[in-house]
Amino acid sequence: MSVKKEKSAILDQQDKKLKEQLSKIKHKIMVMSGKGGVGKSTVAVNIAVGLSLQDFMVGLLDVDLHGPSIPKMLGARDLKLTRRPDGRLGAIKYSPNLKFLSIEPLLPAEDSAIIWRGPIKISAIRQFIGDIDWGELDYLVIDAPPGTGDEPLTVAKTIPDAYALIVTTPQEVSLIDVKKSIKFCQKVKMRILGLIENMSGFICPHCGKPLDLFKRGGGQKLAEEMGIRFLGKIPVDPRVVDTGDRGKPIVGAYPESLTAQAFEEVIRNIISATEEMHKEVLEEKYMRIAVPIATPQKFEANPEKFDLFALYDIENNKLLVKDVAKKPENQALVDFLQEQVATHILLHASNTSVADELTSQGIRVFITEEIEANPDNLIHTLLSQRG
Ligand SMILES: Nc1ncnc2c1ncn2[C@@H]1O[C@H](COP(=O)(O)OP(=O)(O)OP(=O)(O)O)[C@@H](O)[C@H]1O
Ligand SMILES: [Mg+2]
């Protein structure tokens, strides 16, 4: 076998493992922000621990390769990866319901400075998901570094059905940051779960009551303006820092505190938002319809020529965004559609074998009798028939 073929065989194998693993995880949530230090890792850890305390099976994946903070925040720097009976490595067990993984336990010594180049980051993150056994999970929470670099991009590509959870603080500048994050999500076609406002108001270290020292509350308005869900706000609380440093997340350490209760509310909202988004797909309230095209203005009815696709995001029978994507020549149609997170495809009535194959892979099929129609018109007709 040539080196090139061997390499692609390894990648194919890894792709298969990745898909298998991802199919066992019900909801995937990537915590992101435009700006550093807004509390992503804090939010990720408390959400993961909070969900696990409610008997969900949870995974927490730290894809921050330069500044991993999850092991410290969990107080689990000494824990090691587990070896499964079949020889595979499993994520690190933190509690019966919570597993996590970070680059930190895989590095030789604490504080080892590693310079990661883009492609290595990508393959490390893919291995975190594909090569490590996570088992069946209700939630995988992913803690990303700030911004829209290689790490969130790799997560978006590797886990096409992940939702983004955007964290912001109540400062003016964060508006621009949230907009950047939303733009990123639109570009990589990641659905947005919602927005959390962290460090919103202040909990007095002496009496434990909320004080309005700082500006707060802009998050809700911002979410409304941007048309995304507001998942709640978390106050500034010195115990967050303290519990983070001691490795005992506040939701577990002080469950009665107002801050832990604020996290509880955020978690309740996350549970209902994920269920809702899942249901929207099942009930076809949310659809991403792929339409094979010959040119942006012309539908393609011949499956031999399927290489360009228009993608329409539909919510409640209204068109949100349209995009065009090219399928790589050597990629199978079903793999391409899954990578694009297409829920549906519009095919010509004669494409019966393609339709059968895609249906068996969970992609729903709409049929049209038209041959050379404009794809936008086809979608409008489809929506008006359904509406
Ligand atoms: N609600 C809060 N109250 C008080 N301190 C907080 C709160 N949220 C986060 N912090 C503190 O702010 C600091 C930054 O938080 P954290 O590391 O979670 O942010 P981050 O967004 O993950 O940062 P980075 O962008 O570097 O990954 C930490 O010391 C953390 O303990
Ligand atoms: Mg962080």
From TrEMBL:
Family in the record: Belongs to the Mrp/NBP35 ATP-binding proteins family.
Annotated GO MF terms: ATP binding; ATP hydrolysis activity; ATP-dependent FeS chaperone activity; iron-sulfur cluster binding; metal ion binding
Keyword DNA damage: no
InterPro entries in alphabetical order: DiNase_FeMo-co_biosyn_sf (IPR036105), Mrp-like_CS (IPR000808), Mrp/NBP35_ATP-bd (IPR019591), P-loop_NTPase (IPR027417), YlxH/NBP35 (IPR033756)
Record has Nucleotide-binding as a keyword: yes
A Pfam match: ParA
Assembly and oligomerization: Homodimer.
Keywords: ATP-binding, Hydrolase, Iron, Iron-sulfur, Metal-binding, Nucleotide-binding
Chain residues that bind ATP: 34-41
HAMAP family referenced in this protein's UniProt entry, alphabetically: Mrp_NBP35
GO biological process: iron-sulfur cluster assembly
Identification of the protein by name: Iron-sulfur cluster carrier protein
Job description of the protein: Binds and transfers iron-sulfur (Fe-S) clusters to target apoproteins. Can hydrolyze ATP.
GO CC field: cytosol
